[in-house]
Design goal:
mainly alpha, 64% helix
């Protein structure tokens, strides 16, 4: 969408979303530095599940902030929808609830609660 075609309210929403995304990016930079600095120390969990959980959380934050701003990123949505390197019921739940909440926000609806079937996961 052309930025000149935005209403004042849309412009303010997007500007606020961009500022929030900048803070998420700063958090990601800080965490990346921490990972490098503590590579040989047990201060920060660095196993596959811990890293996959953090990535899922960052993706969730980003896509929901974008949705609040009336924006969407198909590549980010696809990244959330794709199974990650670690298959866990909790991570699938995070992905599903994030996608449903983002869709609801983009469409101006309240998100519905997500329920996952029992079993079939680690």
């Amino acid at each position: 969408m052309d930025a000149l075609a935005l209403s004042v309210g849309e412009h303010e929403r997007r500007t606020a979303a961009i500022r929030r995304l900048e803070r998420v990016a700063a958090d990601m930079r800080y965490f990346a530095v921490r990972l490098v600095d503590t590579r040989d120390e047990p201060e920060v969990a660095q196993g596959p599940l811990a890293l996959a959980t953090r990535a899922g959380w960052i993706y969730a934050r980003m896509v929901l902030i974008q949705a609040d701003g009336g924006m969407h990123s198909p590549s980010l949505i696809n990244a959330i929808a794709e199974p990650g390197p670690v298959d866990s019921r909790a991570l699938r739940g995070l992905s599903l609830s994030t996608l449903l909440a983002a869709e609801a926000r983009i469409c101006g609806r309240r998100p519905a609660p997500v329920t996952l079937a029992r079993g079939g996961g680690r």
